[in-house]
Amino acid sequence: MYTKSIVRSGLVSLVLVLGASGVSVAMAAETVSAAKAPESISDAKTAGPVSGYDFLQKETQQMQDDDFLNPGMQWVESGKDMFNNLQGENGKTCASCHGKDGSKLDPKRIARYPVFNETLGKPVTLQGQVNTCWTKRLGHHQLPYDSEGPLKLEVFVHNLARGEKVNVQADGPMKPYYERGETIYRTRAGQLDMACSVCHDHNAGKKIRGNTLSQGQANGYPAYRLKHGSVAGLHSTFNECYRLFRASEMPPGNDDYTALEVYVTARGNGLAIETPGVRF
Ligand code: HEC
Ligand code: HEC
Predict the structure, then answer these.
(1) Smallest CA separation from ligand 1 atom 3, residue
(2) Which of 161, 170, 220, 230 could cysteine-pair with 274, CB 3.0–4.6 Å?
(3) For ligand 1, atom 15, which residue shows the shortest CA distance?
(4) Is any ligand 2 atom within 6 A of the Cβ of residue 110?
(5) Taking CB atoms and a 6 Å cutoff, what residues make up the pocket around ligand 1?
């Protein structure tokens, strides 16, 4: 069930049904006027990048802050276990090359992902790099992007950079991908004729059923999602958003989602990495 009603004059009024789980998010009751935006919205729009954390309810923030309460930390632990102990065809582990517990990985470099990969001639996401090492350096079979194994490893590796500032290149060889990502971000699609920017730029700060629409930043990802009871990857979350406005989804890991990740992460440059974030 959904209603579509977007008035071009800047009035947005819609009812959204959140995902397949049937949790409905009613934004319909409220009408957002672009001309006279509530203070919280204009704040969220002008304050520069703001983490999704700042839009969370207190209890969720507390859960993220406390490593004993944050359910995502279990994923970090099992990712660490895989990293140190899971042997590839050649008897090596991730730790054989990157040190026990990833001691030889540089958090500042991790904070730069997605990065331009000269060999591939295109950007590679952190999970993409993990998956490349998984297959090329350990000889494992490829696992689906955003599936449990790669996510555990990505959460572990990204957590090594927790507190570092997101620092993604948007110029040089990354520029065309950043621009492609921005185009996707601003292109209206789906039965509700929406774009990422409609919710996360123009309506950030708006209350929906006790939760608040954030800027759609990526610094908490992969994040523990309370409604799924598991960690979700960024590309799967893009799909969740596309489902919100009844647009077609794309396979996680594809080039368009990599470009979208380049744009979404770079627009959050300077935010502290929170992985694993806790989100509803
Ligand atoms: C045989 C050695 C080897 C093994 C085993 C290995 N890697 Fe790598 N890894 C590399 C090399 C070399 C690079 C540099 C980029 C490249 O050439 O792919 C790299 C790059 C990386 C990076 C990016 C680091 C940076 O500073 O940009 C991450 C993250 C990473 N590997 C994670 C893993 C994980 C997770 C595993 C286990 C699934 C793993 N690697 C297994 C050799 C290895
Ligand atoms: C109809 C409104 C809507 C649209 C359009 C939309 N999203 Fe979202 N998005 C949400 C809601 C609701 C959430 C969960 C609450 C929040 O963080 O805003 C969310 C969360 C996110 C998050 C996680 C933020 C965090 O800190 O946990 C990201 C990233 C994101 N969206 C990206 C996108 C991208 C990219 C697009 C375009 C493909 C998009 N969204 C389109 C409503 C939308």
Answers:
(1) 97
(2) 220
(3) 129
(4) no
(5) 83, 92, 94, 96-98, 105-106, 109, 129-130, 132-134, 137-138, 153, 157
Closest of 213, 217, 195 to residue 205, by C-alpha: 213
32 in ligand 2 pocket by Cβ < 6 Å? no
Between the alpha carbon of residue 163 and those of residues 59, 65, 75, 184, the distances in Å are 21, 12, 18, 29
Can you list the domains of the chain with their CATH numbers?
A: 45-66+167-279 (1.10.760.10), 72-159 (1.10.760.10)
CA 41/CA 172 separation, integer angstroms: 33
The protein residue whose alpha carbon is closest to atom 33 in ligand 1 is 130
The rounded distance, in Å, linking the Cα atoms of 34 and 252 is 33
Compute the C-alpha angle 135/241/175, nearest 5°.
60
Residue 270 exposed, middle or buried by CB count within 10 Å (0-12, 13-18, 19+):
exposed
Which residues are designated catalytic?
241
| CA 88 to ligand 1 centroid distance, Å | 13
CA–centroid distance, residue 84 to ligand 2 (Å): 34
Indicate yes or no: pTM above 0.70.
yes
| Distant-in-sequence, close-in-space partners of 137: CB < 8 Å, separation ≥ 6 | 88, 92, 97
For residue 36, CA distances in Å to 10, 44, 202 come to 10, 14, 12
Alpha-carbon distance 30 to 14, whole Å?
9
